[in-house]
Amino acid sequence: MTAKINRINPDQLHETPGYHHITVVETGRTAYLAGQCPLDQGGSLVGPGSLDKQVDQIVVNALAALAAVDAQAQHVVRSVIYVRSDDREDLGLVWHRLTASALGPAFTSASTLLGVAQLGFAGQLVEVDLTIALPD
Q1: From its phi and psi, is residue 90 left (phi > 0), alpha (psi between -120 and 50) or beta?
Q2: C-alpha torsion 99→100→106→111, nearest 10
Q3: How many CA atoms lie within 13 A of 125 on its CB side?
Q4: Tens of pLDDT along 72-91?
Q5: What is the mean pLDDT of residues 44-71?
Q6: Rounded to whole angstroms, how far apart are CA atoms 64 and 83?
Q7: What SS3 class is residue 70?
Q8: Which residues, listed in sequence order, are joined to residue 81 by a DSSP beta bridge?
Q9: Stretch 124-132: mean pLDDT, rounded?
Q10: Alpha-carbon distance 89 to 93, whole Å?
Q11: pLDDT of 1 over the 70 cut
Q12: What share of the chain in percent tops pLDDT 70?
């Protein structure tokens, strides 16, 4: 049986820019992706200093990880986006680039966007953490 995914925005909560406050998975298995980083297949950082290039590489990496478990962006039920910045414009740029990408449907579920002081790799500006309700 394929997981049944319900995305809910209660009337009592504020409107969102595309995500849902609550995502309920009725049945099925889940997969937890490690934080997707802007690294190429050889492990080199892509786009030093460029939020756009780093987001684009994360999209490529996340889609490859989803494909490895026979899932697609719409199967994502939770996302956490980390941006190495305290500038809300940077956070908004990352959000809009992700939601406009081929990975965009992943961000209609429960999501959190955070500005952070540091990420794991030198020069890394963005990381995306995804939880997936696996299809059968």
Answers
A1: alpha
A2: 0
A3: 19
A4: 999 999 999 999 999 999 99
A5: 97
A6: 21
A7: coil
A8: 113, 128
A9: 97
A10: 6
A11: no
A12: 98
Q: Which residue type does 122 have? A: A
Q: State the Cα–Cα distance between residues 16 and 59, nearest whole angstrom.
A: 22
Residue 136: the pLDDT is 77
Q: What's the rounded Cα separation, in Å, for the pair 115 and 90?
A: 9
Q: Which residue has the tokens 């449907």?
A: 105
Cα(70)–Cα(127) distance, rounded to whole angstroms? Answer: 22
* CA–CA dist 133, 113 (Å, integer): 20
Residue with tokens 């297949």: 41
- CA pair distance 126, 62, nearest whole angstrom: 13
pLDDT at 2: 56
- What's the pLDDT score for residue 13? 92
Torsion of CA 44, 46, 48, 51, to 10 degrees: -150
For 73, list phi and psi in degrees, rounded to 5. Answer: -55, -35
**What are the structure tokens assigned to 14, written together?**
């504020």
pLDDT of residue 99: 98
